[in-house]
Write a structure and sequence with these properties.
266 residues; alpha/beta; 3-stranded mixed beta sheet; 11 helices
């Protein structure tokens, strides 16, 4: 496939890029801040001095920046400059409609866009155990799957462009609701005079166990989860804008919102 670009070298993107490099792929990196590239010194990665310069060198570019605006700004520079037949892969969690819009723009330049948000965090990326939730054409995904295999242990093709984002948003909103329920369960146990640490051990081997419960068992107050709550609150808004009126979404939102608001309280 030639050279592989990567933009968005944060806590999750950096280990993903490193896995690609370690797998022997010819990776070109770009970052706004030079210090972001320091961990890649001594690797086979090369650096571009601009997004447009990177775009001209690669036939595949992964994007793992923070939000919708960042994805749009990067793609506006990538799409006109990449050679036809290339692939744009959006690993950021963003609005499904943004991916669909960018896919149409990319198609006009002979490019394929795939939305591929990931789950598993920085450690999962470093270990090569991420889950990738993919939306795009069968042919495009078949061609990029070997790249995903460098950092993922599970790849789920969920439908056309935008489907990966929708699945990630539903998954994250479920996580938010589960966090809220776990928080209330721990508080209820305390109210009933149940010893906290023993209760945590009990649930960890019982039917109520979950990742959300594990997270809540490690924090003393919802505000200890402020950073994660901010990301989940963003995703709650993205899903609300995607589904409009839905009793199923409303049920999840009613459970999740008070906990997220508490976590974000000043």
């Amino acid at each position: 496939m030639g050279k592989f670009g990567f933009i968005g070298l944060g806590s999750q993107g950096a280990p993903m890029a490193q896995r690609m490099i370690d797998a022997g792929l010819d990776v070109v990196l770009w970052a706004r801040r030079p210090e972001t590239l320091q961990p890649f010194a001594g690797t086979t990665a090369t650096y571009a001095d601009s997004i447009a310069s990177l775009a001209k060198q690669v036939t595949y570019c992964a994007i793992c920046v923070v939000d919708d605006l960042g994805v749009q700004q990067v793609c506006e520079q990538l799409i006109p400059a990449m050679p036809g037949g290339g692939y744009l892969v959006v690993h950021s969690t963003v609005h499904p409609q943004l991916c669909q819009k960018l896919s149409r723009q990319a198609h006009g330049y002979g490019l394929s866009l795939i939305d591929a948000p990931v789950s598993g965090g920085g450690q999962g990326a470093a270990d090569g155990t991420l889950t990738v939730m993919v939306g795009g054409s069968e042919d495009a995904i078949k061609n990029v799957r070997p790249v995903f295999n460098t950092f993922a242990s599970h790849i789920a093709h969920l439908g056309d462009v935008g489907s990966g984002q929708r699945a990630k948003l539903v998954n994250n909103n479920l996580m938010a609701a589960n966090l809220a329920l776990a928080h209330h369960a721990l508080a209820l146990a305390e109210t009933l005079g149940i010893q906290r640490e023993e209760f945590i051990k009990l649930v960890s081997v019982s039917s109520g166990r979950s990742l959300a419960f594990e997270v809540c068992s490690r924090i003393n107050d919802p505000t200890d989860f402020r950073h994660g709550a901010a990301l989940l609150k963003k995703d709650l808004g993205l899903l609300a804008d995607s589904v409009h009126n839905s009793d199923h979404f409303q049920a999840i939102r009613d459970v999740a919102t008070p906990f997220l608001d508490s976590a974000l309280a000043e």
